[in-house]
Every structure is written in structure tokens, then in C-alpha cells.
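Kindly inspect this chain:
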Amino acid sequence: MSLNSSAFSHPPYFLLVGIPGLEKEQFWIAFPFCIMYAIAVLGNVTLLLIIKTEPSLHEPMYLFLAMLAFTDLVLSTSMLPKMLGIFWLGSREIGFLSCLAQLFFIHTFSSVESGVLMAMALDRYMAICRPLRHSSILSVPAVVALGSLVLVRGVLLVSPFCFLLHRLPFCQHHVISHSYCEHMAVVKLACGDTRVNVMYGLFAAFIVTGSDVILISVSYTMILRVVMRLSSREAQLKSFSTCTSHICVILAFYVPALFTFLTHRFGQSIPPHVHIMVANLYLLVPPMLNPIVYGVRNKKLWDRVVLLFQQKGT
């Protein structure tokens, strides 16, 4: 009886729709997505190699950047290969446990990305507002410990998503109106009581995004106050320029994340294809942009990139 009940409540697989309403256009949409993924992989792998092989880059800012690059690789790789299978091959099936695994990696590393961006904002605050104490407080062991803490936080907060979904009955609902397994998209298929899932999802989002955004906002408010007190216009511009790239990356990550989160809960009037397109771009645009923004705007890093490709060419 319990075996039948378990088999009935957990479908052997889900069917991923892709982009609802744009099924016929998906084949062509996959090409720009694939190009974005290729740029993300090339850019982030290059960053990791340069930071690993260049001892002068073993500083807090670049170590956090390496964490960001690794996180971006995991995030984009967790969803894009399967998405291309849906768009190009019509391979819509994903096993129940595979779906939970994909969901786990996407949400865990979204949380890690948020935490790394917060850590980078703290690094900028220390470098500009407390320059004399920067190296002593943010030593390499402290940076590694902070990165580990951010990863553990993501794993501990996201793991309950999988356990809570595993206990839900899904009856015969197994078509996910999404391009990948996302927590709320899967919750909507359940035919049991999902209030715990919804409440825990809100709690986890508030703990991660709420705390990180508050710390980032406080850090940049303090930075702005210090920079505005500088007597030299040139010094002000130099300080601002070191933060501009980080602010661009923060906006590219949090704006679509907030849109996707709110649309799932309150955006019934927003067309599904708009919501899903933004949700897809949310996991592709930041991984593609981050190495470009940091690589181009950071002279020390850009010089190393140029040197690497010159050596490859000779």
C-alpha cells in the first residue's frame, strides 16, 4: 500500500515545457543562449586560471572574484545543457530525483552568488573606509572562511526545499511550465498542502537576499559618505570607479532575481513567456557579464588576460 502510494505521489519524471507560449521559437532562442553560455564558460575559466597562476592576484578582491567565477560556472551549467536539450532535441523529460538535484544546485549557488557579492561589498568597504585594517581583517584565511560560510549557508537553507518537495504528493501533475526545475514551479504541481513550502521559501529568500542586500546597501552608503568627503575630485572619481563594476554586477543579479521571485507569488498578470525568459536570463546574464565587467574595468586583471592570450598566440 505504501509502495503504491509512494509511486503514485512521486512521478518517475517531470516534463519541462521550456518557454510557455514560445515553443515554436525555442529552437532559435537557444542559439543566443548557447553563445551567452560559451562566453560565460570562457570568461570565468580564464579568470580562474589567471587568479590561480598569478601570485600577485592572491588578494581578497581577486579571491572573491574567483569564488564568483566558480559559482557562475556551476549556476549556468546546472541549467543550460538540459535547456538546450529541450529547445533543440525536444528532450523534455527529467527524472524526479534529477529535478530535485537541479533545483538544489540552482538555488544553493544562487544563494552563494548573493553571499559572495555581499562579501565583495564588505571588501570594498574595508579597502576604502578602513584601508589600514583591510589586510589584517581580510586575510587570506578570513576570506576562505567567509567563502566557506557562504557555501554552508546555501546548502543548509536550500536542502529543506528538497525534503519538503519529496514529501508532497503530485498526483498526475508532472508538466512544469518552466525551462528548469525551480522550487515554486515544482511546488505549483503538488496536489497536497504546500503552505509549509511557500512559507519556507519566503523565509529562505528573506534570510539570504534580505540580509545580503541590507549589508551591501549599508557598505555602499558608508563608502559614498567617505568618498564625498575626499578633497580631490580625482580621488573621488578613482574611488567611485573601483565600485562601479561591482554595482553593475549587483544590479544584473538582483533585479531579475527580484522580478522572478515576485512574479511567482504575485505576478499572475505577467505573461508566462516573459517571466520564464527573465528567469532564464537571470542564470545566464550575470555569469556572462561578470568576467567581462571585472576583466575590462580592472587594469591589473586585464593586463594579465592580454598577457595570457599573447603567450598563447606565440
Notes: The mean pLDDT is 85. The two ends are 69 Å apart (CA to CA). Residues 154 and 292 are 26 Å apart (CA to CA).
